[in-house]
């Protein structure tokens, strides 16, 4: 069009490229450290790509700690959370969006207000209850709450989706004699399947990345999750940087995969929730 | 007919919400009240709590580490929240530029936000290593500056955490971006016809139109900031010289390392009241700067 327009596009491309590099470099640095040996990580000037790359670090890393066991533990906790959230979260979201009852607006406000409660306020009594039940060093404290809640944000997201479904659909089914649960499970749930997938991925990320929960409840090393296990590459005065970065790379990869599947849907779902007022 | 329908609806409404209601009572309502009670007791987690009135609160008032942790946290929140807002919004504006390859940049900026906090902490502990860390090597080679000790320097450890937090700014940038995209085109176009520059468009149209999202962002950022834990636990564990002993880290130690459950509960309640007051103040002032579309507030 004109010179100014052309210049502004070049400048914005350069700025964006720089920002993209800044955000990418730490991930790249993690990966490249994971294939170096101890002398290469301390060399000056820094080695961008070691020659030859020491892929053997990955084999050492998964043998340095009980990596397979920790992966299994983490997967069990993630799966339990996803199942729990998928059962409890659509139920309550349906109640506050599709069933016309007096308390539903109050319930909705109550659900939203739980966002304003800092975790430390509830953490101690919940820990004491779980330890009285003998649930410390089991996965139960990290899984069972998911069956009785599902996270305020997920509920909010689902509610907004349920609200977009026209009433006529359930009214017609009601006339045909369908039960409320029948309408919910056969008509409504299939319609919100895409958002259930997004919620599953969010839940996966939350459980996979969780640190404080496992830290509090899992003291027995055999029960550790990957997030806890990453600490074991470090002793009081020594860090196995290449092995730690190899393990971190492995732990990070599933989150990147999950992210790949969510990235477009996240933007869309935020748009749909009407967060913009 | 009508009365029975409404009774039936109420029954179903409660039935469908029942799992959540049970969870709320067991994992939210009861714990809140219980921790308030514990905060007035001496309690090691087993046996019976011993009522000591305001003893924990008095002790906290004279606990130097409590004040240190509160100061560290306020320092962190005071820097991380405004900087995070500017960075998040700035990124959103940049990512809103109409370029063919903009999707790649959006992906790159958003990606770090989904990574596990433990991995992120270790990555940055390594990036900010005083001797072999990439950042100090970069500062030394390109600018001939001797970079600071970051996590090992009491002066630089807190700023290092503020910097680390910005790597996750993609999360808020995406939310800002989707709300900017939602600003009606006609508004911006008619402003352009009237000769408005980009700053006028930004400050007079975009900011007011996305102000509800800004309010949401500030509140969640404050809550996140006050509860900083994992990154600090991994990267510094409170050091050096308690310069990164953040509030929840000290609370965690009292509860789970020193078994002072009552003392830690008192800390939790002080935090709760503090963030509620701050949230309330923000909500009060928000009537003046938050603009809700579609009439009513």
Secondary structure tally, helices of chain B: 14
Q: Tell me what the CATH architecture of chain A is.
A: Orthogonal Bundle
- At the fourth level of CATH, the homologous superfamily of chain B is MetI-like
- Report the biggest beta sheet of chain B as strand number plus sense, adding barrel if it closes: 2 strands, antiparallel
Helix content bin of chain B? over 70%
Write down the domain tally of chain B: 1
Pair with the biggest interface: A-B, 91 and 101 residues
Q: Estimate the helix proportion of chain A, in percent.
A: over 70%
Largest sheet of chain A: 2 strands, antiparallel
Question: What does the average pLDDT of chain B come to?
Answer: 92
Q: What CATH architecture of chain B would you give?
A: Orthogonal Bundle
Keywords:
heterodimer; A: 277 residues; mainly alpha; MetI-like fold; two-stranded antiparallel ribbon; 70% helix; globular; B: 297 residues; 14 helices; 2 strands
């Amino acid at each position: 069009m004109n010179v100014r327009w052309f210049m502004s596009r070049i400048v914005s491309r350069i700025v964006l490229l720089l920002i993209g590099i800044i955000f990418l470099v730490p991930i790249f640095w993690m990966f490249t450290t994971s294939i170096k040996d101890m002398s290469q990580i301390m060399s000056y000037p820094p080695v961008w790509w070691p020659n030859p790359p020491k892929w053997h670090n990955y084999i050492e890393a998964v043998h340095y700690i009980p990596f397979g066991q920790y992966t299994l533990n983490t997967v069990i906790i993630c799966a339990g959370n996803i199942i729990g959230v998928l059962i409890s979260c659509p139920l309550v979201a349906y109640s506050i969006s599709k069933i016309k009852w007096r308390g539903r607006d109050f319930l909705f406000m109550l659900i939203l207000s739980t966002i304003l409660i800092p975790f430390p306020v509830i953490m101690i009594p919940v820990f004491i209850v779980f330890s009285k039940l003998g649930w410390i060093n089991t996965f139960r404290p990290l899984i069972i709450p998911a069956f009785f809640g599902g996270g305020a944000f997920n509920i909010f997201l689902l509610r907004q989706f349920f609200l977009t479904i026209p009433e006529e659909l359930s009214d017609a089914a009601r006339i045909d004699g369908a039960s409320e649960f029948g309408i919910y499970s056969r008509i409504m749930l299939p319609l919100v399947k895409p958002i259930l997938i997004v919620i599953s991925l969010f839940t996966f990320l939350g459980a996979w990345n969780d640190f404080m929960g496992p830290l509090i409840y899992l003291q027995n090393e055999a029960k550790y999750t990957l997030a806890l296990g990453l600490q074991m590459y470090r002793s009081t005065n020594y860090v196995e940087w290449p092995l730690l970065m190899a393990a971190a790379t492995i732990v990070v990869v599933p989150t990147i995969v999950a992210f790949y599947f969510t990235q477009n849907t996240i933007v869309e779902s935020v748009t749909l929730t009407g967060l913009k007022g | 007919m009508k009365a029975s329908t409404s009774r039936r609806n109420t029954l179903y409404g409660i039935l469908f919400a029942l799992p959540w209601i049970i969870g709320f009572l067991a994992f939210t309502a009861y714990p809140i009240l219980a921790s308030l009670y514990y905060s007035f007791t001496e309690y090691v987690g087993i046996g019976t709590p011993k009522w000591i009135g305001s003893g924990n609160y008095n002790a906290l008032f004279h606990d130097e580490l409590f004040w240190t942790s509160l100061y560290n946290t306020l320092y962190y929140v005071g820097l991380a929240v405004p900087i995070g807002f500017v960075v998040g919004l700035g990124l959103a504006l940049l990512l809103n530029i109409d370029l063919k390859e903009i999707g790649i940049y959006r992906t790159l900026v958003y990606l770090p936000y989904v990574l596990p906090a433990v991995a992120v902490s270790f990555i940055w502990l390594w990036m900010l290593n005083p001797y072999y860390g990439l950042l100090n090597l970069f500062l030394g080679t390109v600018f001939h500056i001797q970079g600071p000790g970051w996590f090992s320097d009491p002066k630089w450890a807190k700023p290092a955490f503020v910097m680390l937090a910005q790597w996750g700014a993609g999360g808020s940038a995406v939310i800002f971006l989707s709300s900017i995209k939602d600003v009606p085109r006609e508004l911006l176009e008619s402003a352009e016809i009237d000769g408005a520059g980009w700053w006028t468009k930004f400050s007079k149209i975009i900011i007011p139109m996305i102000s509800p999202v800004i309010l949401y962002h500030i509140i969640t950022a404050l809550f996140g900031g006050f509860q900083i834990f994992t990154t600090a636990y991994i990267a510094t564990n409170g050091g050096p010289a308690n310069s990164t002993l953040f509030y929840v880290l000290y609370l965690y130690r009292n509860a789970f390392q020193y078994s002072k459950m009552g003392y830690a509960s008192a800390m939790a309640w002080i935090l709760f009241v503090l963030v509620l007051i701050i949230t309330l103040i923000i909500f009060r002032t928000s009537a003046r700067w938050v603009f809700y579309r579609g009439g009513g507030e």
